User: What shape does this take?
Amino acid sequence: MSELKELSWEVQQATEPLPFEALERRGVRRRRRRQALAGAGVVVAVTIAVLAAVLPLGDLTGTEKPPAATTPRPVVVDRAAEDLLRGADALRGEVTFATATRWAATWSSSYAGRPTYTAVLSRDGVRATAPVQERPYSVLRTGDETIALRGPSGDPFSKDDPSWPRTLMVRLTGQGEIKEPLHWAAPTTTFGANEILTVDATRKNEPLILNPDEKTLRVLEIPDATLVTSPVRDSTGRWWLVGVSGAAGYVLWTDDGGGTWSRALVDAHNQAAGVWVSPDGNTVVTQSVKDANGPTPLRQSTDRGRTWTTIGTADRYLVRGPVVFDDGRVLLLEPLSGKTSAKLFLPNGEVVGQAPRNLDELIRGDGLLYGVVRPSPTDTNSVFTSTDDGKTWKSFEPR
Assistant: This one.
């Protein structure tokens, strides 16, 4: 036991408290270490913040930065085109609207002598012009965009036409102005969903396929159909046209890009004047045209071409339109039909509205009606538009 007591005493002596001065020095050293560590933590935090701001963090989930917006191409002012448009002899040609704020128009310097030509495109207040040339442009609509075209001038349409280097497609997109030459492509019987049917690119009323992405034009071959005109696409993607087979005029349509065609007889002895389609494609109107003046029947289908009825008559030389709405209404215009205004009427003759007296067209766009003015000594270049189905109208010159 005495040995255990002695060992206990030795342990107590070994663990005696340090003197006060030693404890104070130890406390000072610990405080300095904590301050040093705290300072280092601040430096590390600042460094991480700086690196996060400077270096990409794409490898960390949820930290990817969104892609930077592409800068639109600047629209370059073409002084020659502007001079033509502002000239005293400038004459407006055709006009097309995609929406109330997106349109395109063709212009020429004069009908006499050797005229020169340009086109104007406007997109939500941004404007672009086509280069001045000695051949006319055409304008067309695709979706909510308009395009100006100058196709080849040779006849027939062929790969060897020497005018291909002078062809041009002008677009005004959300990325700015695009001007690119067109190229020949081999004839085909089918076309894709992104392609556009037109009969205006060469001014020869032959059906062509425009591929805006590949910048190509090619002939569309439709079995047993000639004199094909009036291509229009409804919101379902179906394309409608009119054509002639033998002496008879037909409405034609395809749902599969020309893979198969359906048709309905319009007139056994006369060419069809055109086809007019509601946006949803359910209501379709067509009419034949005769060499001599006089009314011809208006034929209507309300079931996408399966059955047809006669809903009235109209003289193509006196009446403009028709335009067709999703609710089945069919609206016609008779220019100069009143002393101060023109009448808008239904095929049964019922007058349902008024239009400017000198309105010479009635065309439907996306949410609007429009048409050009009948030339007069005081106005040759205006376009009228209505966004309330013809209740009110505005005019402007699409320069």
Summary: The CA atoms of residues 341 and 357 lie 4 Å apart.
